[in-house]
Design a protein that fits this description.
Layout (H helix, E strand, L loop, with lengths): L2 E2 L4 H25 L11 H20 E2 L11 H40 L5 H22 L12
Antiparallel strand pairs: 1-2
Helix pairs in contact: 1-2, 3-4
């Protein structure tokens, strides 16, 4: 149930911030639209357009709508802190290994780790889901949108 009325000050500040960032995204998307290739459905402006629209909508909601039952922030227990630390380490490994191993191998290894650590899937399920995820990302970004990713030492 959504209650219109008492919106906390911090929510209003975050709403204004989201509206400002969304507006900046839309202005930049408009500027990039002129560089879109003729006959191409997606361009450099697409992500910024959708992101700007979502930020504007989220900002307006944060300005005017209050969600009931806001619970206080609770510090995570030891187990959740370990998940956060492991995830951060894996992400840093992704950043440092992608130039050497390439997009496909690094994405496969990192997503396998994320599915195992965060999703708590078995290694077999993590490997299978990571393979499908990597394949989808590779097809979408390199085949359809033509984004050049690092190929690494193995040329993959």
């Amino acid at each position: 149930m959504v209650i219109l009325g008492k919106v906390q000050f911090i929510d209003r500040v975050a709403g204004v911030f989201a509206i400002v960032v969304g507006t900046i995204c839309l202005v930049e998307a408009r500027r990039l639209y002129q560089y879109r290739l003729p006959g191409v459905l997606l361009g450099d402006d697409t992500f910024l357009t959708f992101g700007g629209i979502w930020l504007l909508l989220a900002g307006l909601l944060m300005l005017f709508v209050s969600l009931p039952g806001m619970s206080p922030v609770v510090w995570p227990n030891r187990e959740k802190i370990l998940v956060i630390v492991k995830t951060s380490i894996v992400f840093l490994l992704f950043v440092f290994l992608i130039p050497y191993l390439g997009f496909a191998i690094t994405t496969f290894a990192v997503s396998t780790s994320f599915f195992f650590i965060i999703g708590r899937y078995s290694w077999y399920k993590s490997l299978a889901i990571a393979f499908l995820f990597t394949l989808c990302c590779y097809v979408i970004f390199t085949v359809w949108i033509y984004i050049p990713f690092p190929r690494g030492l193995f040329g993959i």
